[in-house]
Design brief:
Elements (H helix, E strand, L loop, with lengths): L2 H11 L3 E5 L5 H16 L4 E5 L15 E3 L4 H10 L2 E5 L8 H10 L3 E6 L10 E4 L6 H11 L8 H14 L10 H12 L4 H9 L4 H14 E4 L4 E6 L1 H6 L10 H6 L6 E8 L2 E8 L7 H7 L3 E2 L3 E6 L3 H15 L7
Parallel strand pairs: 1-2, 1-4, 2-3, 4-5, 5-6, 8-9
Antiparallel strand pairs: 7-8, 9-10, 10-12, 11-12
The protein binds manganese (II) ion.
């Protein structure tokens, strides 16, 4: 049996299936959760999705009403997790990624656990681990589950739409180097199953708010600092600045990629002051410009080579200074010879 067939056998044997994903929900955590839920339902079983927080606003068009959110319904989530005999851990590989409340429940649970994920360095708590770090998204792995457990015939628009979304958002619209030939084979299967890709792109791109655009404009004209000797750009935004532009979660997500579109730029670092700490987002281009090492060695974070996160409990100015001190080491000036 391949691992996906084992997973299907566990689904068939379970009576209380719960699907969890990481905190700070994104397109892939939501997409893989909903895709798996609808697949399980098509197998004639049922499951409940329990997430630490709610779906970001840009996914308003997706039916996320079946997702039970810890922040909103702590009693229901607690009860559901306590009753579970099979828990899926999607798009994360360490129990602390679900936030302290759900982490405690997860660790206390004697339920079987199945991890399906694509991040580096998985913890070894699950019964079955599918950890494919070279795959672009967890959503792609859910399609593998459907196909490799022998149920490609069950793939339909309802299952496929959130999975397409997850692959799309985790690959920057299919452009990151994590996209493999297999990714496009899988996308073809999703389209063949009836996924209306043009509508998904439309919903995702024509979804700006005035305040987000004004915040972007402010960040670009007033806050962008480019270290041309190192081809690295930094944007910092204090909590006052975020408040002035009526900041909503997700409003700064596209800043780093926008900055990376500057010709020759290797890395973009965007940090925002939230809940008393600096949340730092590191993005870069190419295999020679990893940012996860800088994130893990100095900012209590980590992630993918070209997309990492971290944090700092210093002030905005101090964090900026710390970054500027470190950047020459991680992004040395190129000398012509
Ligand atoms: Mn992901």
């Amino acid at each position: 049996m391949n691992p996906y067939q084992q997973i299907e056998a566990e689904i068939q044997a379970a009576s209380h299936i719960v699907i969890t994903a990481h905190k700070s929900a994104d397109g892939d955590s939501i997409g893989s959760s909903l895709g798996l839920l609808h697949f399980i339902e098509k197998l004639g079983k049922s499951a409940v999705i329990c997430h630490p927080d709610k779906a970001p606003d840009f996914l308003y068009w997706l039916d996320t009403s079946s997702i039970l959110v810890m922040e909103e319904h702590p009693e229901q989530v607690t009860e559901t997790l306590q009753q579970a005999d099979l828990i899926f851990c999607l798009d994360y590989n360490a129990t602390n990624r679900v936030g302290p409340e759900m982490q405690a429940l997860l660790e206390a649970s004697s339920s079987k656990k199945i991890m399906i994920d694509h991040h580096l360095n998985p913890e070894d708590f699950p019964l079955i681990t599918v950890s494919e770090t070279s795959v672009c998204s967890t959503s792609q792995l859910i399609v593998e589950l459907i196909e490799q457990s022998g149920h490609l015939d069950l793939l339909d628009q309802k299952i496929g739409t959130p999975l397409y979304l997850g692959i799309l958002t985790d690959t920057g619209s299919f452009r990151f180097n994590s996209v493999q030939p297999r990714t496009h084979e899988i996308l073809a299967k999703l389209l063949a199953a009836g996924v209306e890709h043009h509508l998904i792109h439309e919903k995702l791109s024509d979804n700006n708010t005035e305040s987000r655009l004004r915040l972007q404009g402010y960040a670009m004209s007033e806050k962008l600092e480019i270290l041309y000797n190192h081809n690295v750009a930094i944007i910092s935004l204090s909590k006052e600045e975020l408040a002035k532009y009526n900041y909503k979660k997700g409003d700064t997500d596209s800043l780093a990629n926008l900055v990376l579109s500057i010709k020759g730029m290797k890395a973009a670092i965007v940090f925002t002051e939230r809940d008393g700490i600096m949340k730092i987002s590191f993005r870069s281009k190419g295999a020679n410009n990893p940012v996860n090492i800088l994130a893990s060695e100095h900012f209590n974070g980590g992630g993918h080579a070209n997309a990492s996160g971290g944090m700092s409990d210093l002030s905005v100015t101090e964090t900026l200074d710390k970054l500027k001190t470190l950047i020459p080491t991680y992004f040395p000036t190129e000398t012509l010879n």
